[in-house]
Every structure is written in structure tokens, then in C-alpha cells.
Design brief:
The complex is a heterodimer of chains A (about 280) and B (about 325).
Chain A: E1 26-28, E2 35-37, H1 38-43, H2 59-66, E3 72-75, E4 79-81, H3 93-104, E5 110-117, E6 120-127, H4 138-154, E7 158-164, H5 172-191, E8 196-204, H6 206-209, E9 218-221, H7 232-239, H8 250-255, E10 261-262, H9 268-280
Helix pairs in contact in A: 4-5
Chain B: H1 7-25, H2 30-52, H3 56-63, H4 71-78, E1 81-84, E2 97-104, E3 107-114, H5 120-125, H6 133-148, E4 153-159, H7 166-170, H8 173-185, E5 191-200, H9 201-205, E6 212-216, E7 220-222, H10 226-233, H11 240-247, H12 251-256, E8 262-264, H13 275-294, H14 298-310, E9 315-317
Parallel strand pairs in B: 3-4, 4-5, 5-6, 5-7, 6-8
Antiparallel strand pairs in B: 1-2, 2-3
Helix pairs in contact in B: 1-2, 6-8, 10-11
The chains are: A alpha/beta (about 280), B alpha/beta (about 325).
């Protein structure tokens, strides 16, 4: 005998009308499977309260974490990718762009803004990995170059938050030259003696690590971020051997002298402000 | 080693050589002379039609031709005197990156470039022209040395990429390349960069920031090799020809998109068919550019160099609606 009896026959609720737990109330850590309320996860700067796993967040979240009261003026929001080479692989580049724009609600893989961080004026550019793997094409290069130009003009410090697989293949030679363009602007920023903090997050590889991400007055990373020039797969294929444990993690780079420190996301605003105030007082 | 499209030409050339020998041994008569002239002209025609129609992938093959002149070949041919310098003063002397002071038409020039090897042993020694971080740091040290003594710099680029290895990562391949790119913008002396073979990605760019960036006709320069591009975007190594087409990586493509400043013409058939001619062309070209660049102040050169690279990129700027 069944515990419950169905009173009405033929109940056919369409899927979209079925009631479910509202999305986004809970966050489950992909590392330790710990479940926590989303609000708490957010208050924890999108890190796991149990294992400190840093979720791959984007510009929206970093701006919220770093700018005072989430107040900022976005720079150059209307730059969009063109398709100078009419690049087509398994899909056309223009289609990939449109699909990514639709999926993410972003125009391209970087956003830049100006505001204050603990009352200190600052220009921040932040990459969005969700947009074609955070790949660097002409728009990313140009927006970063303009953000640096803005910092030069305002005489403000510049903070770059990198999260990218590298250059965008669909723009071939053009994307390669964005490495040059951004590095040129950083040379001017250095000449003007303005501070540049580079924050490397998971992952930062390829043409991004081989240009602006490694050129900070201080290079800082989030815990356990993958950082390297060549990706682990390429290296494994080249040398035909397994890679050492912890290879290309933030901790490994710190150990080998390429980072100044590793910072927990909850503490970065305070620590960056303290450092900048030491330089600027 | 002959490339596929070189074979028909080589066969005719062999035939021509036999005919010439025959004519020499037997008192040549008008008929043979006539046949030789005809064959010569058809060889020339075949060459012209072959090399005018090369696909992008075939040009990539030419850029990697096993008989193509390498960096030290250029340096030795162009310089009246050359002193090679070694080491990055930190870790090692990277044999994949060579450099030193040379005299060209009485002027002292710093030469820096990736070096490939010609036989198995040399290839290993030179790591196939793939430099490690110490190679890029050696290059930067030599360029700063040139700046100190106010000597212009010529870089010769020929690399399938910066080396992807454990030690390379450990010693900061990314940092070394980034540092070079940034510092080259601020060099107060003239810098001329010439892609003489392969110009693969950051490994090439790490010594390719110049007042003039030139490519030899049958070379390639892009963000990734056609093979790697094929493996990433098509998830197979089989699409290298399509990838080469899509990447628009030839000298003509790069000039068309204003990503380089000029193309240096090669003899019909490629640089390896007449190295002497290529050396002379490269020498004349760099001396011409040098003369123009020396007429500018260091400040003017630096700001033009920066402006040039900052103009590169294609994007749409939509206005607020």
C-alpha cells in the first residue's frame, strides 16, 4: 500500500511552471563540496569559508570588492571586437563574439574603470574569463592601453587584474601586437613614476603573462592561481614527462621569485591600499 | 631536402645540367644551344608560376627550409668584423640566442638573434632556435650594452617559439619576454628588427620591438604557429593549411595590415637559392633604414616607436544609444 494517494489523475504541470529551490541561494564549493549560503559566499569575497577556494569571478565582482561603495566610472564601455581577418575555424569569429556577448552580457574580455579604493583614486582594468577564455584581442589591448593613459592623465595608480588563457588566435597578428601596445603604455606609466600593481588570478598564461601581467611594480597573485607562459598541456607534450606537483601555481611562482606576495581576496583591498599609501605619502 | 613544390623545378634543373655537360663534352652545336635556351626559359617560367601561386602554408614551409640562411650566416656575411658575446650574467649562456658587436660598412652595430642548427647535433645545441628565459635576458643585456655605447641594434628573428619547458617556466619565461618588450620601447638607440625565418608569437616579439620591423618575403609572423592553431581551434593537427590561411601570417599579409614596416624581397625560389644576393639586400636595406633613423633624436625615435605599436589593432567604437 502506498503512503500517499494521488487524488487527481493526469496532473501535467509544464516544466517551466514547476516549483524549484530559487537559483543562487546556496553555493557549493567545487573543491571541498562545502555548501554555504550565497550571501555568505559573496560577503566572503567569493571564496569558500571552509577551504578558501577562490571562485573565478569577473570584473563586476572585483569592482564591487575594490571600489568604495561599488561606485566607479566605467572607461570606454563601447569598444567592440571587429573581425579584420574574417577568421573562420569551426565557427566564424563574429559568431563567437556575438554568442559570448549574449552569454556574458559583456562587450569583450576586459572592463576598466576609475574610482576610489579606501579613498585613494585608482584606475582598475579587470579581465573577464567568461568571454572567450579572457583572450586578448584588439579590444582588450586598446582598453588596457586607454586605461593606462587615463591613469597617466589623472596621475592615479593603476591596478590590472589578469585572468586569461592568452592572446586571441582569431585576431592573429593583431592580438600579438597588443602585448607590445600594453607594454609600451606601461613603460610610459613607469617613466611617470606612477604605481602599477599587477594582480594575477586563475589562470594567467600565454601572451597576457608575457606582457602586462608580469610587469607590475609588484606582482601579486591569488592563492593557487595557475600562472605560466606555456600551458601545462603544451609543456607535458614537449618534454614527454609528467609535471611536478604544484607546478605553475602562485605558490610555485612566489618560491621562484616572480611574485611579491600572494593575497587572499578578502584582504586585497586593504593590503593594496596600505601599499599604495606607503608609496604615495 | 626538397619541398614538394620544389621538385618539378629541381628535375628540370637537373636535366639542364646534364644537357650543359653534354654540350661541353661534345662540341656544342646550334641545336643543343637552342634546346638549352628553351629549357632555361621554361624553368624560369615554371619558377615564376610556382612562386607566384604559393599558398600561405607553402610559404611557412619555405620559411623553415633546411638550407635557409640562419642568423649567424647573415652576421658573418654582412659584417666585416664580428665579436660574439655570451651569457645573461645570471644563469647560463643560451645557445638559441646569439649576439655581439659587428662592423658593417664601417659602422658598429649590435646584432642579436635566435639561432637554429643545421644538423641533429647543432639543432640540439641550439634547441631548435627556442630560447629560454636566459636567452631573452642575454638579448636584453646586449641591447643595453649597445645603448650604453650608443650603437644601433639589429635583431634577427627566427624562432618556432620561446621554449616551453619546466626550467623555462621556473626561471620566468613570461617575465623575461615581457621585460624585453617593455625595455625595448625605451632604448635610446635605433632598433631594426628583421624576421628572417619563423616569427612565432611572444618568443619572436621578445626581440622584435623596433623603429623598423621588416620581414623577408618568405617568412611568417603571427601569434601562434599554424600547427598549434590547428590543434587548438580545430582540435586536430590536420588543419595546418587552413590555419595558415586563416592566420594571415605571411609578410604580405602583415604589411597589408600595417603590422610591419616593410618586406625584403627574396630571390625567386627563396633565400636559400641565392644566399649571397639575400645577404646583400639585407645589408643595403638595413643601412638605408639606419641612415634615416640616425637623423632622428632618441626622443623622437622612442615616441614614434611607441605610437606605431599603439596604433595596431582593429575594433569598433559604438556610441551610446
Amino acid at each position: 500500500m502506498a503512503w500517499f494517494n494521488r487524488k487527481e489523475k493526469g496532473i501535467v504541470t509544464p516544466t517551466e511552471n514547476k516549483k524549484e529551490t530559487p537559483d543562487g541561494l546556496w553555493y557549493k564549493c567545487p573543491e571541498c563540496k562545502n555548501v554555504m549560503p550565497s550571501r555568505e559566499h559573496r560577503q566572503n569575497a567569493y571564496t569558500c569559508s571552509s577551504c578558501d577556494h577562490h571562485e573565478r569571478i569577473g570584473s563586476r565582482e572585483y569592482f564591487e570588492i575594490l571600489f568604495d561603495q561599488n561606485q566607479f566610472t566605467e572607461l570606454d564601455p563601447h569598444l567592440e571586437a571587429d573581425d579584420p581577418l574574417q577568421f573562420v575555424d569551426s565557427a566564424a569569429y563574429t559568431q563567437r563574439i556575438r554568442a559570448s556577448q549574449k552569454k556574458t552580457g559583456l562587450t569583450d574580455a576586459v572592463r576598466s574603470a576609475y574610482g576610489t579604493m579606501n579613498e585613494l583614486p585608482i584606475t582598475i582594468a579587470c579581465m573577464d574569463f567568461g568571454f572567450i577564455g579572457g583572450s586578448m584581442g584588439s579590444v582588450v589591448g586598446e582598453k588596457i592601453a586607454r586605461a593606462i593613459a587615463h591613469a597617466l592623465h589623472q596621475r592615479s595608480p593603476f591596478l590590472m587584474i589578469s585572468r586569461s588563457g592568452g592572446a586571441r588566435m582569431q585576431e592573429a597578428g593583431f592580438s600579438l601586437m597588443q602585448m607590445a601596445k600594453t607594454s609600451a603604455k606601461l613603460a610610459l606609466l613607469a617613466e611617470a613614476r606612477l604605481p602599477y600593481i599587477s594582480l594575477l588570478t586563475d589562470p594567467t598564461t600565454g601572451g597576457v603573462s608575457a606582457s602586462y601581467a608580469m610587469l607590475g611594480d609588484v606582482n601579486v597573485a591569488e592563492p593557487k592561481a595557475l600562472i605560466g607562459f606555456a600551458g601545462p598541456r603544451v609543456i607535458r607534450e614537449t618534454i614527454g614527462k609528467d609535471l611536478p606537483r604544484g607546478f605553475q601555481t602562485a605558490e610555485y611562482l612566489l618560491e621562484h621569485g616572480f611574485l611579491d606576495f600572494i593575497v587572499h581576496r578578502k584582504e586585497m583591498k586593504e593590503k593594496f591600499s596600505r601599499l599604495l599609501k606607503m608609496w604615495l605619502d | 631536402m626538397l619541398l614538394d613544390f620544389e621538385k618539378p623545378i629541381a628535375e628540370l634543373e637537373e636535366k639542364l645540367a646534364t644537357m650543359k655537360e653534354y654540350a661541353l663534352q661534345h662540341n656544342s652545336n646550334g641545336n643543343i644551344e637552342q634546346a638549352i635556351r628553351e629549357l632555361e626559359s621554361s624553368i624560369l617560367q615554371l619558377k615564376r608560376s610556382t612562386y607566384q601561386q604559393l599558398t600561405r602554408w607553402q610559404k611557412v614551409q619555405l620559411s623553415r627550409h633546411s638550407e635557409r640562411p640562419y642568423t649567424l650566416d647573415y652576421i658573418q656575411a654582412i659584417c666585416e668584423d664580428f665579436i660574439e658575446l655570451h651569457g645573461d650574467r645570471n644563469v647560463a649562456d643560451d645557445k638559441a640566442m646569439v649576439g655581439g658587436f659587428g662592423k658593417v660598412a664601417g659602422q658598429t652595430i649590435m646584432f642579436v638573434g635566435q639561432q637554429k642548427g643545421r644538423n641533429t647535433k647543432q639543432r640540439q645545441l641550439r634547441n631548435f632556435g627556442m630560447a629560454n628565459p636566459e636567452g631573452y635576458r642575454k638579448a636584453l643585456r646586449l641591447m643595453k650594452l649597445a645603448e650604453k655605447f650608443n650603437k644601433p641594434i639589429v635583431t634577427l628573428i627566427d624562432t618556432p617559439g620561446a621554449f616551453p619547458g619546466i626550467l623555462a617556466e621556473e626561471r620566468g619565461q613570461a617575465e623575461a619576454i615581457a621585460r624585453n618588450i617593455q625595455q625595448m620601447f625605451m632604448l635610446r638607440v635605433p632598433v631594426i628588427c628583421i624576421i628572417i625565418g619563423e616569427g612565432a608569437s611572444g618568443g619572436a616579439l621578445g626581440i622584435a620591438i623596433g623603429d623598423r620591423v621588416l620581414m623577408l618575403e618568405n617568412t611568417w609572423y603571427s601569434v601562434i604557429s599554424p600547427e598549434s592553431c590547428s590543434s587548438i581551434l580545430w582540435r586536430s593537427w590536420e588543419y595546418k593549411e587552413q590555419a595558415a590561411e586563416a592566420l594571415r601570417l605571411t609578410s604580405q599579409d602583415m604589411l597589408h595590415h600595417h603590422l610591419i614596416d616593410g618586406v625584403i624581397t627574396e630571390p625567386l625560389g627563396g633565400a636559400h637559392t641565392d644566399p649571397g644576393l639575400v645577404f646583400q639586400t639585407v645589408k643595403d636595406t638595413l643601412l638605408n633604414h639606419l641612415e634615416d633613423l640616425l637623423a632622428l633624436s632618441p626622443e623622437a625615435r622612442i615616441s614614434q616607436r611607441i605610437d606605431k605599436f599603439c596604433r595596431m589593432g582593429v575594433y569598433k567604437e559604438t556610441s551610446l544609444v
